[in-house]
Specification:
Elements: H1 2-13, H2 27-32, H3 38-67, E1 70-76, E2 82-87, H4 90-98, E3 112-119, H5 122-133, H6 135-145
Antiparallel strand pairs: 1-2, 1-3
Helix pairs in contact: 1-3, 5-6
């Protein structure tokens, strides 16, 4: 019950819409509280705790959202062909391709990442990869996604 009373004090002491990392109390709140008031100090303490919780939740949400993206990528291989795939961790997958851990691309190393795009949904990424591997998708890839003169065979 004490937390609810502190939250109620927080709403009355700290007005909505005050910006900054450490907004001061409003003039009416300063007049109504005394220097030794425990209500005001507990409200500020609750506000500080809420700020910490909000920052941690925001950081977690960013990490979660970053992990939930799915990537469709195109690699250029040494033999002049292209490899299209999808993954959730583009850096780790590229590392695996470059170090010969993927059976299809290991004899055609080195590989070079030439295109990738992110999707918020796994099934959208799979559908786009499937499209890129189709006839019209290959034409689209050759016309719009791959610049042939910049690809260097090593």
């Amino acid at each position: 019950m004490a937390e609810w009373s502190n939250a109620a004090v927080l709403k009355t002491v700290v007005p909505q819409g005050t910006g900054g990392s450490n907004p001061s109390l409003s003039a009416s709140a300063r007049r109504s509280t005394t220097a030794g008031s425990t209500k005001a100090s507990s409200a500020i303490k609750v506000r500080c705790n809420l700020k910490v919780i909000q920052r941690r939740a925001y950081a977690c949400a960013i990490r979660k959202n970053m992990q939930e993206f799915w990537y469709v990528y195109i690699l250029s291989m040494q033999n002049g062909k292209f490899y299209t795939g999808y993954t959730q961790d583009i850096d780790e997958r590229l590392f695996r391709h470059q170090n010969g851990m993927v059976p299809y691309t290991s004899p055609h190393r080195p590989v070079q990442l030439i295109f990738y795009c992110a999707f918020p949904d796994k099934y959208m990424a799979i559908a786009f990869e499937k499209y890129l591997k189709s006839g019209s998708g290959l034409a689209f890839t050759n016309k719009r996604l791959i610049q042939r003169q910049t690809i260097i065979k090593q």
